Amino acid sequence: MEQTRKAALVLVLVLSVLATACGNSGDDDDATAGASTTQATAGDEGEPAADEGEGDSGSFVPLEGVSGVTDDEIRFAAIGTRTNNPLGTCILDCYAAGIQAYFDHVNANGGVHGRQLVLSETIDDALAENQVRSLDVISRDDVFGVFSATLLATGFGDLDAAGVPTFVWNIHADDFRDRPSIFGHLPASCSTCTQRLLPYLVQQARATRVAALGYGISQNSKICTSSLRDSVEAFSEDIGGAEVVYFNDELAFGLPNGVGPEVTAMQEAGVDFIASCMDLNGMETLGRELQRQGMDDVVMSHPNTYDQQFVADAGGIFEGDYVTPQFLPFEADTGNELQAAFRDQMEAQGEALTELAMIGFINADTAVRGLLEAGPEFDRQTVIDALNALTDYSAGGLIAPIDWTVGHTAPTPEQPQPRTCAAPVQVVDGAFQTVADPSTPFLCFDNEAEGWEEPEQVAFDET
């Protein structure tokens, strides 16, 4: 019971991060109205020692005393949650599959600095043992770096203090920030900042009466739900007067008693759009209750339901809803070569295309980029320093560019990120479609604009 409670607490931390990138929309024609379209370059820090993913087999230099590095290999461990996972989703195994897919791609082209990349260990932290497993890896000193996809990031501080380059599924705002050795697929985030994506998508859905829902298990969930409400209210006049008419940040994690009374209350309030800080299982429970009470036409915004099989198995209850992946959606059509490599390698491994696999793939690209930038005479610290000098890292166009010179420090409402980008998708006939044009799937918002501005549609360059 205590393990499940801890996992629930972490889940709402996850959602407080993801909520800033979530929203939903109307049909494809309306979703792109007012949004300009560009092709953006991802970097200004120059090319790395070799193109990401192409290997660099001609730059071998013998090294001594570098943890996890031999003349033939650069070894990494992956630590994450497999057993005791209260979400019931594929985390560690899917994540490791993505890392291996990237390593296979690079190794087929000569590896890095004349060495092969090796995922030597995949370690289950069984939900509550992340710190124990991390300390064990640190003490053995037989891997160069660590990958982590966990629900309880209790080992992040130890890995950072030990100077271990660590690449993570960044769903842990408090455990991630201000730790220069930890690199996420997202930079540090602001849980209290208002966002522009949600009100934009409320506008596109032609919704006027919004509900904001979250779990009551921790203060972080309350902050997340409040941010949803504040975002709509901040731009209400700009999006046709939409307002939050139902607010509930006290839902029980797992919805053990259902949500019948809450849905009835939303029906009485005339809710036509629901923004949530809930996990995918909670969203399914909510969707089925909406259907039962005849509210099928209510559009829902999902923070983390980017799972095609889960949506298909739900039997249509998510039709018309929106989800925001944290990377270039699989449904995009930008001609991205690294995304194509991901598809090819996952097919070769017989693995499904999943969100966690792509995050593992992106984390692996970050690790390789650090090795290439550090040069053939690398060690842990030079890789960390090289990554922290990058100002526009985009994982070959798979993510919105990160400025790692400031990426470990969370923005604030007073000093927000200059620009935020997200690539939401819509469930149409049971499958995902990009909200924006599939060739420019990211919607980027200028946070420094004093008034409301329509987003710019962007595809990031692969450099």
Describe this structure in words.
It is built from 14 helices and 16 strands. It is of the alpha/beta class. The strands form three sheets. A seven-stranded mixed beta sheet has the order 8-7-9-10-11-13-14, sandwiched between helices. Strands 3-2-4-5-6 form a five-stranded parallel beta sheet, sandwiched between helices. Strands 1-16-15-12 form a four-stranded mixed beta sheet, with no helix packed on it. Helix 13 packs across helix 14. The longest helix is centred in the last third of the chain and has 20 residues. The N terminus is likely disordered.
Could you name the key traits of this structure?
463 residues, alpha/beta, seven-stranded mixed sheet, five-stranded parallel sheet, 14 helices, globular, disordered N terminus
State the strand order across the main sheet: 8-7-9-10-11-13-14
Tell how many strands the DSSP assignment holds: 16
What is the overall silhouette?
Answer: globular
- Strand coverage percent: 15-25%
Mean pLDDT: 88
Approximately how much helix is present in the residues?
A: 25-40%
Count of helical stretches: 14
Secondary structure class reads alpha/beta
Distance between the termini: 47 Å
List the uncertain runs.
1-54
Biggest pleated-sheet summary: 7 strands, mixed
Radius of gyration: 21 Å
The SSE order reads: HHEEHEHEHEHEHEHEHEHEHEHHHEEEEE
Summarize the structure in short.
This protein is α/β, with parallel strands linked by helices and 463 residues long. 33% of the residues lie in helices and 18% in strands. The strands form three sheets. The protein has a seven-stranded mixed β-sheet with strand order 8-7-9-10-11-13-14, with helices on both faces. Strands 3-2-4-5-6 form a five-stranded parallel β-sheet, sandwiched between helices. The protein has a four-stranded mixed β-sheet with strand order 1-16-15-12, with no helix packed on it.
